[in-house]
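Posted in: Structural Biology > Protein-Ligand Complexes

Title: Requesting predicted complex, zinc ion in pocket

I'd be grateful if someone could produce the 3D structure tokens for the following input. Sequence and ligand are given below.
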Amino acid sequence: MILVAKPNAPAKLAEFADLTAGHCAAHDADRARYDRGDTTFEILSANYGHADVKDVLRNAQHSKCCFCEGMFEANAAADVEHYRPKKYSQQGRRQPKVYPGYYWRGYAWDNLFYCCQVCNRSHKKNFFPLRDPTTRVRHHGGDLTGEAPLLLNPAGPADPRDHIFFNNEIAVGGTDEGVATVDYCGLNRLPLIEARLEHFKRLETLRHVAALQATSPDVEAVILEAQTYLAAAVLPAAKFSAMAQDALAA
Ligand SMILES: [Zn+2]
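-- Reply #1 --
Done. Output follows.
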């Protein structure tokens, strides 16, 4: 996981301002009903499929998932992820669903990310643990700055690299936020570990190649190729770049 630099909000999102205002008014009119979860707001996720929003996120994230840094191939399925869950939230596993979710953040640019379906649907789901669950905001008039989320926001302000590091291919949380994010986003699920291990081994091999003595023009060319690959592997556009940074710094 690396820090995502988001561009300005796409103009498309402004079209949902009236819808959000309507949700807020409906909530004010019968707060208890929404707090019980008898009625939830329908956030029209299908609208996020619009190229104006989803592609902007994808470009900002170099076609990678905001959590696992897996690279999306062309047309691979991906979700627009709501950092703060829109329908309801859960402090943790086997914890009750808390209604309503962050319905007023359903179309908020700073709440949206490009995310693989495994991270989003199989792991993070509606989990949104807070350091103090009593501070959870359940109304659009609340102050979100009073919450201390345990899940790292891919756009900061905290740099995920200060909270999660890699021991070879294994993601390790170095703080409470890092531990919670690795856990709830499934950053050590087996297929992901296997994919990172394959990449890690490639980096190790290339590092040895890059350190060879150039005994001939052919060898020199191979060394240069390895060095070029390794230099690119740690950049934000590269898959699993956080792991690569730690692997190559070791
Ligand atoms: Zn992912």
